[in-house]
Amino acid sequence: MVDFNHIIRINPKKRFGKPCVRDTRITVYDVLGWLSVGMTYDEIIADFPELTKEDILACLAFAARRERSLQTALQDGGLGIEESPILRLHNDMQICQHPYI
Fold it and tell me: What architecture is domain 8-96?
């Protein structure tokens, strides 16, 4: 797995603390979004020459580690699904939802 610690950085003053590639304003989520719509590494690098193939691989490694950490927390009981903030927000929205919206 790619060591992304020197590539992916989190700065609360940049992009609201989202993980970014080095000193750019390009987030991990931006790169994942481009890949998800079928852009190739070469197309991404052509559009954003400040990125390298290693940067793109670091974004994938970061996302994989984050997913694995979440799954481990769920399995270890560290965050029960019923305690999930996303599920709680979803349930609150259903309760508060206006009938005409």
Answer: Orthogonal Bundle (1.10)
